[in-house]
Design a protein that fits this description.
about 15% strand, alpha/beta, 16 helices, binds 3-acetylpyridine adenine dinucleotide, about 550 residues
Length: about 550
């Protein structure tokens, strides 16, 4: 194959620098090098895996079913790999990622233990100058971030944490063994997806576990199970259809077809349906049982109260049950959480719960957490407090765009992008599953593959047109921001504080960081944009149309 790098200036060592060697970075390396581009990937960690390399805390597993949370780009790959469980544990996902890296010989494209710490657009040479944490600078025509949305841990903003001299570990950088907690008095701070998965296993070994909960969540049973041989055979026979369904679904998993609203049915019928959904569980469970659960607060209340009742039935101590009942947000408006024996864990004699809403942490001493109501002596603190989502990893690249402005300054008053993949004033820079893409609320692997393919085709389009510089127009970016806002506005996401909107990080602008119109609609729209010659994208300063135009309305 002829190298497509003919137009890459001599001063650029490679066509593309890619950031990260997780699901995004690996597919990026595969897709682009197969098409003949030269590619240099940099990964801060010592090996491939991204999220699944770092998040090794006890109980870590994906809550999107393994058969959907995997690559679809290669039929042989999906035929030869066999998932053991409905929801694969972290170690199995990591070995899958390693298998992919080996099978397609992808490690050779990456330098590990090397972080991108800065990147500046050089307008004269029309390339990116990329600074690495080893002090070197590399130059590339294109810079593509596959740094992920949940790869930058949130600051450890627990007051007085620096005073604590006992064992301290965070779920997102787990570096101890569960045995290290055996017999100890352990505190877990945080009850999101990570905390909920870790808590039952920590409880099994700890002398005493105290959970410090700020916001109770709706935790639905994961209902994980081994995949039977017949199930696997049937999935493998049907993979092409399953993948196509995922690609054109709302959330990147086969759609659970619901058209009726919660009050279209009798109270008894609604209850019956919630019970069936609770048994089914997963993202197509209770939260997806009626069409209006995420838009009508009253409808949502019926589903929320259904879960409240479940909690009260499972948790034996009524006072603890009341603290666990989620009352500060509607079901599904914050990221849904799926657990195994989560509420049952609070029936153990060695587990207690502290509500930080009632008694906030004031400080920590060398061996205790001090709240407004008491002092809790502990030997170990586990932080499960989440991430500086989406912008954290991007701002870590410290990008300087064409006008000399940093990305973090350009987005100071609100996060912006064109399709979640490009940013005006940052030429030749692309994001795989970036902010305002469907990545936030979908099976991210589906979004990753779509984004990589779309970006790769755009690079080819630019090459075919002898264009060296690709940039989203400010007009198209503005339109996309308006579309994403208008799409989320009628939903309960828009009015609920969550990391989806940056509420968990002080000073972060209030922007819902995803497109909620569905991965299927988004894919069809991106395809149409490509077909029409990329309106909203300028090549060497010339835009076919500066606007995205009515494409979003035209596509169903
Ligand atoms: O983080 P989170 P996570 N003092 O932000 C609390 C994905 N994921 O790592 O809600 C005390 O959800 C915070 O309280 P509040 C998934 O997308 C997936 O658990 O802000 N508490 C909350 O309870 C997920 O949504 C999987 O009031 C503090 C918790 O810490 C995303 O990653 C598994 C605090 C943080 O919850 C993030 O999940 C794991 C403080 N200073 C993760 N700061 C699966 O696929 C925060 N909190 C299963």
């Amino acid at each position: 194959m002829n190298s497509p790098s003919l137009s890459t200036p001599a001063t650029a060592a490679v066509d593309v620098i890619g950031v990260g060697a997780g699901f995004s970075g690996l597919y990026l390396a595969h897709r682009l090098t197969t098409a003949g581009w030269t590619f240099a990937g940099f990964e801060a960690g010592p090996d491939v895996g991204g999220t699944w390399f770092w998040n090794t805390y006890p109980g870590a597993r994906c809550d999107v079913e393994s058969i959907y949370y995997s690559y679809s780009f290669d039929e042989t790959l999906q035929q030869e790999w066999t998932w053991s469980q409905r929801f694969a544990p972290q170690a199995e996902i990591l070995s899958y990622i390693n298998h992919v890296a080996d099978r397609f010989d992808l490690r050779k494209h990456f330098t590990f233990d090397t972080r991108v710490v800065g990147a500046t657009w050089n307008a004269a040479d029309r390339l990116w100058e990329v600074q690495l944490d080893n002090g070197e600078t590399r130059r590339s025509r294109y810079l593509i971030s596959g740094a992920g949305g949940l790869s930058t841990p949130k600051d450890f903003d627990v007051p007085g944490l620096e005073n604590f001299t006992g064992l301290q570990v965070s779920t997102s950088r787990w570096n101890i063994s569960l045995d290290d907690l055996a017999g100890k008095r352990v505190a877990v701070i945080g009850t999101g997806s990570s905390g909920v998965q870790a808590i039952p296993l920590i409880a099994q070994v700890a002398g005493h576990l105290t959970v410090f909960q700020r916001t109770p969540n709706y935790v639905m049973p994961a209902r994980n199970a081994a995949l039977a041989t017949e199930q696997i055979d049937s999935i493998k026979n049907d993979y092409p259809t399953i993948r196509e369904e995922c690609r054109h679904s709302p959330g990147g998993i086969p759609e659970y077809p619901v058209t009726d609203n919660a009050f279209d049915v009798s109270d008894e019928e609604r209850q019956r349906r919630y019970e069936a959904a609770y048994e089914r569980s997963g993202f197509n469970g209770v939260g997806a049982e009626f069409a209006d659960l995420l838009t009508n607060p009253e409808a949502n209340r019926t589903a929320s109260e259904f879960i409240h009742d479940k909690i009260r039935k499972i948790v034996e101590d009524p006072a603890t049950a009341e603290l666990l009942v989620p009352k500060y947000h509607p079901l599904g408006a914050k990221r849904s959480v799926f657990g195994t024996d989560y509420y049952e864990t609070y029936n153990r004699p060695n587990v207690s719960l502290v509500s930080l809403r009632d008694e906030p942490i004031q400080t920590m001493t060398e061996n205790a957490i001090v709240t407004s109501k008491g002092t809790y002596e502990v030997d170990a603190v586990v932080l499960a407090i989440g991430f500086d989502a989406f912008t954290g990893p991007l701002y870590g690249l410290d990008l300087t765009g064409a006008s000399g402005r940093k990305l973090q300054d350009a987005w100071r008053d609100g996060i912006r992008s064109y399709l979640g993949m490009m940013a005006a004033d940052f030429p030749n820079f692309f994001m795989v599953g970036g902010p305002l893409s469907p990545a936030l609320v979908s099976n991210v692997v589906v979004t990753i593959e779509q984004a990589v393919d779309w970006i790769a085709e755009l690079l080819e389009h630019a090459r075919d047109n002898d264009a060296a510089v690709i940039e989203a127009t400010a007009e198209a970016e503005e339109e996309w921001v308006n579309i994403t806002e208008a799409t989320v506005a009628p939903t309960l996401y828009a009015t609920t504080d969550s990391w989806y909107r940056g509420s968990n990080v002080d000073g972060k602008p209030d922007t819902f960081m995803g497109y909620v119109g569905g991965v299927g609609k988004y894919r069809r729209m991106c395809t149409e944009i490509a077909k029409r010659g990329y309106p909203g994208v300028q090549l060497d300063g010339e835009a076919q149309s500066r606007h995205l135009g009515p494409i979003h309305q035209e596509i169903s």
